[in-house]
Amino acid sequence: MLEKLLFCYEYSLIICCCKYGCFNATSRHEDIKDAMLSLVHMMRENTEKLERHEARERQLGEHLKKALAVLTKRTSTIESFKTELAKLDEKVIGIEQLISQVSD
Fold first, then answer.
1. Containing H/E element for 89?
2. Which residue, 32, 85, 97, 98, has most beta carbons within 10 Å?
């Protein structure tokens, strides 16, 4: 893909040189060389940026996965507390009914 991109860039540079009459062989060669080096440099920078972005995205994914696991665990703990509180509430209601029956 890089070769195709460089070829297209070089071809368009040659067309521009022909169109504007700056078709000196040494300047054409140097211009093409400079343009190709500049393009390679820009592609390396973009590749590095993309790799850093992907690394941050992976870190965020791991962080979110851990946070989701913690929240799931806490939710299940709360659900078990809810069940236990309902049982205790039923026992308290039963005890209150017994006390009210004894006092009557």
1. helix 25-103
2. 32
Nearest C-alpha neighbor of 89 from the set 97, 104, 102: 97
Domain extent listing, the chain: 30-103
Give tens-digit pLDDT for 51-91. 999 999 999 999 999 999 999 999 999 999 999 999 999 99
Q: Check the CA dihedral 20-16-26-34 and report its sign.
A: positive
> 3-class SS at 24?
coil
What is the DSSP secondary structure assignment for residue 1, as one 8-state letter?
-
User: Which residue, chain included where needed, has tokens 């040494």?
Assistant: 26
Task: Give CA–CA dist 29/36, Å, rounded.
Answer: 10
CB 36 within 8 Å of CB 10: yes
* Residue 18, pLDDT score: 57
How far out from the chain centre does Cα 66 lie?
15
